[in-house]
Design brief:
GNK2_sf, Killer Toxin P4, Chain A, membrane, five-stranded antiparallel β-sheet, 7 helices, elongated, 10 strands
């Protein structure tokens, strides 16, 4: 291969590397929004499983759920036979695509193994999805059992916050019952609210669960301008922006970060376009040099032939 061929090959490899880097950077920037660990719950009881039948069933369960997450945002299944059967499910946030859902759920088996080990029941909650499992017959907690909550440290000032918050909460309570996938997101006068129920919950039960979650937020978070409440069968979050709701699609800032990511990607594409132009110019120069060089080789032969 000549210098021209080697040069283009090396430049092609460099261009390919730049493209892969930009693609990876975009993915990482977006993925960080919905794969952050929020909390985990692990049963104290461990598998008494010398033959490792339970562990194999758990492995099969995880594999099945991860596979299903590439097709839909909620699913449940059971693996194994009594008395070794294990049941489980996953739920992705209602504004995620199936591709994002898969990316989120596929991270949980490893996290669960590290944090909960051989627990007979566990739940791992990421910001964009959760997965839980238990041995069949494991005692269930009530649908509205509080699992986790966090309240923002900043307090709202002024007298309008409470009425705005309560109105936004009321809209969300109705919204989760009528929304697609028992999911709602919206805002009212600078109070942004998100709510979602587990996919197999009845509509009326979903409304009751969301109502309990919002009441917990009122009682425990008070005038905090943000909060998240996770019950067994539903969760809610809210944020108050006194200066107006920014362009986001979730409390974790998915759209806002996505816009930043797109800006970075556009900048990267512009830079990539500049590189392509430079490569085309270099290719043109090399081509001219090669043509000139080839002409120099042919011409003496022609002269020698005439002689």
């Amino acid at each position: 291969m000549g210098l021209h061929g080697k040069t283009l090959s090396l430049l092609s490899v460099s261009l390919f590397s730049v493209t892969i880097f930009l693609g990876s950077f975009t993915f990482v920037a977006i993925a960080a929004d919905y794969t952050t660990l929020v909390f985990k719950g692990c049963a104290d009881q461990k598998f008494q499983d010398p033959s490792e039948v339970y562990l194999q069933n758990l492995k099969n369960l995880m594999s099945t759920l991860v596979s299903q997450s590439s097709q839909k945002t909620f699913s449940s299944t059971t693996t194994g036979q009594d008395p070794n059967a294990i049941t489980g499910l996953y739920q992705c946030r209602g504004d995620l695509t199936t591709s994002q859902c898969y990316s989120c759920v596929s991270k949980i088996p490893e996290i669960s193994d590290k944090l909960c080990g051989k627990a007979v029941a566990a739940r791992v909650q990421l910001s964009g999805c959760y997965l839980r499992y238990e041995i069949v017959g494991f005692k269930q907690v009530p649908e509205t059992e509080l699992l986790y909550k966090v309240c923002g440290s900043s307090q709202a000032s002024g007298t309008d916050f409470e009425s705005r918050r309560d109105t936004a909460f009321g809209m969300a309570e109705d919204g989760v019952k009528s929304g697609s996938g028992l999911f709602y997101t919206g805002d009212y006068q600078s109070v942004y609210v998100l709510g979602q129920c587990e996919g197999d919950l009845a509509t009326s039960d979903c409304g009751d669960c969301a109502k309990s979650a919002f009441q917990t937020a009122k009682d425990d978070c008070g005038d905090s301008i943000s909060g998240q409440v996770y019950l067994h069968k539903c969760y809610i979050s809210y944020s108050y922006y006194p200066n107006g709701v920014p362009a986001i699609s979730s409390p974790s800032g998915t759209r806002q970060r996505t816009q930043k990511t797109v800006a970075i990607a556009v900048g990267g594409v512009a830079a990539l376009g500049f590189i392509v132009v430079c490569l085309m110019f270099l290719k043109s120069v090399l081509k001219k040099r090669r043509t000139k060089h080839e002409g120099w080789v042919i011409t003496p032969s022609y002269i020698l032939l005439i002689s």
